[in-house]
Amino acid sequence: LSERLTDTLKNLRTKGKLSASDVDGTVREIRRALLDADVAFDVVKQFTNTVRERALGDDVNRALNPAQQVVQIVNEELVNILGGEQRRLQFAKRPPTIIMLAGLQGAGKTTLAGKLAKWLVKDGHTPVLVAADLQRPNAVNQLQVVGGQAGVPVFAPEPGNGVGNPVKVAKDAVKYAETKLHDVVIVDTAGRLGVDRDMMKQAADIRKAIDPDEVLFVIDAMIGQDAVATAKAFQEGVDFTGVVLSKLDGDARGGAALSVASVTGRPIIFASTGESLDDFEPFYPDRMASRILDLGDILTLIEQAQEAFDEDEAREMAEKFATDTFTLEDFLKQMQQLKNMGSIKKMMGMLPGMGQMKQQLENFDESELVRTEAIIQSMTPAERRNSKLLNGSRRLRIARGSGTTVTEVNALVNRFEQAAKMMKTVAKGGVPQMPGMGPI
Ligand code: GDP
Ligand code: MG
Predict the structure, then answer these.
(1) If you take atom 5 of ligand 1, which residue's CA is the nearest one?
(2) Fold classified for 97-283
(3) What is the best residue among 100, 116, 275, 279 to mutate for testing ligand 1's pocket, by most ligand atoms within 8 Å of CB?
(4) Residue 110: which H helix or E strand, with range?
(5) Quick count: other Cβ atoms within 10 Å of Cβ 77?
(6) Is the beta carbon of 189 within 6 A of some atom in ligand 1?
(7) pTM of the complete model
(8) Atom of ligand 1 nearest to the CA of 113
(9) Ligand 1 pocket residue status of 105, Cβ below 6 Å
(10) Is 134 annotated as ligand-binding?
(11) Which CATH number describes the domain made up of 324-429?
(12) E strand map for 221-283
């Protein structure tokens, strides 16, 4: 669910009570969507239980229909697990701020070091990168390349001093930063392909030696179901203050975000979204919740809400047509609804049975609505209720008042009267098709 879509769902004026079977059906869809998004099974189970409890509890909003209520609860709970508010990087009261990176080999630590440095430089900081990954032959060199791209210095062991001793390198780097007035120290560390005791111990030793302000656990968002075990192992072995999700570009569904945040209780602070140093941003729990909900079968919920909306709305309108109480104000209201719906145009196209509706939305021109709005607002209440009052001089006054022409006023009134007439006929014989939505 994108934000706009959530808003649209909230705006649908349908009513309904939440029954246990509504909740079960919806929760089932959500469970499937989350599993599809690679959220760990236990996390999904716990999550759906919480949602079910809340949905059947008292704190539901009766103004929303069942599907919407559940979607709202799901969204809130997702944001909760993901940390609620966006968590900012913690800086030391007295510089330098020490940031240590930990994670498996290939998680994206070295790349992140460069991204973080570049981001900090833009913010007026003077970071230094520290090569405390002395495991892989090329690791130091890789960090130097990244540092060059970010335009920041790299502290690395020199022959005869610190080679093979990452703890010493890290400690020396902090001293170096103090004397050279670097206000942030970013320590890159070694990872292994899998969770490994020696690696954990090395990272824990580095942590003990330099007492970082932040230990960022970097995890590949594509890792899927392995995310939980990996995150737990790092929490026990090294512990960390925050999480960075990397490779959140491409097809990554972000289920790992939910798993890791839920299992460790640590906030996700940044998202890495590509190989370039600029593919990097603070992590926003609400946006991630939207991203997770966007996937899988969650679209079904929207469809359900949409159907409920159509039925209620149609019934109400049908009554107005049949009893000849459809007014220009109703007409305007309907057009405004169209505008709301314009924003979900794209989503509608993906829903079965919505093809025709989508076509009508495609033809909808919002500037036309602005004019229609102006014209109807320039009418007196009596005129709005009874279009028969609209003689030539009234139409001229309305055209002037709304900054349009008499021709445009005429066109609008004709369209309205045609719609009302047509719908009256239809209403007597069957269910109307979204009145007022013909060619505008
Ligand atoms: P490290 O072993 O943890 O230091 O991981 P690296 O920083 O060396 O990254 C491993 C690989 O993943 C490299 O090829 C990076 O270019 C790539 N990489 C890192 N971050 C991202 C990201 O956010 N998106 C994508 N697509 N690739 C990334
Ligand atoms: Mg590395």
Answers:
(1) 108
(2) Rossmann fold (3.40.50)
(3) 275
(4) helix 109-122
(5) 17
(6) no
(7) 0.66
(8) 7
(9) yes
(10) no
(11) 1.10.260.30
(12) 242-246, 268-272, 280-282
Cα 163 vs. chain centroid, distance in angstroms?
Answer: 44
- Evaluate whether 298 touches 269 at the Cβ level (below 8 Å): no
Q: Is 439 left (phi over 0), alpha (psi -120 to 50) or beta?
A: beta
Angle, CA of 251, 259 and 32, to the nearest 5°: 65
Domain boundaries, the chain: 3-85+295-299, 97-283, 324-429
**Quick one: which of 394, 361, 392, 363 has its CA closest to 378?**
394
What phi-psi label fits residue 220: left (phi over 0), alpha (psi between -120 and 50 degrees) or beta?
A: beta
Our answer on whether the CB atom of 86 is closer than 6 Å to any ligand 1 atom is no
Strand pairing category for 184-189 and 242-246: unpaired
Q: Is the dihedral of CA 87, 93, 95, 98 positive or negative?
A: negative
Whether omega before 96 lies within 30 degrees of 0, making that bond cis, reads yes
Q: Which ligand is nearest to the CA of 143?
A: 2
Domain 3-85+295-299 fold is Four Helix Bundle (Hemerythrin (Met), subunit A) (1.20.120)
Are the beta carbons of 313 and 65 closer than 8 angstroms? no
CA of 288 to the centre of ligand 1 (A): 21
Q: How far apart are CA 189 and CA 234, in angstroms?
A: 13
Determine contact, residues 218/255, Cβ cutoff 8 Å: no
Quote ipTM for the complex: 0.99
Q: How do the pLDDT tens digits run along the chain, 440 residues long?
A: 334 334 433 433 344 555 677 677 777 777 887 787 788 888 999 999 998 888 887 665 555 566 667 777 887 888 888 888 889 999 999 999 999 999 999 999 999 999 999 999 999 999 999 999 998 889 999 999 999 999 999 999 887 777 789 999 999 999 999 999 999 999 999 998 888 888 999 999 999 999 999 999 999 988 878 889 999 999 999 999 999 999 988 666 678 888 999 999 999 999 998 999 999 999 988 877 877 766 333 444 444 444 555 566 666 766 776 677 778 887 777 666 655 554 444 344 434 344 445 555 555 566 777 888 899 989 998 999 888 999 999 999 999 999 999 999 999 998 888 777 766 666 565 444 444 443 33
Under a CB-based contact definition with an 8 Å cutoff, are residues 401 and 412 in contact? no
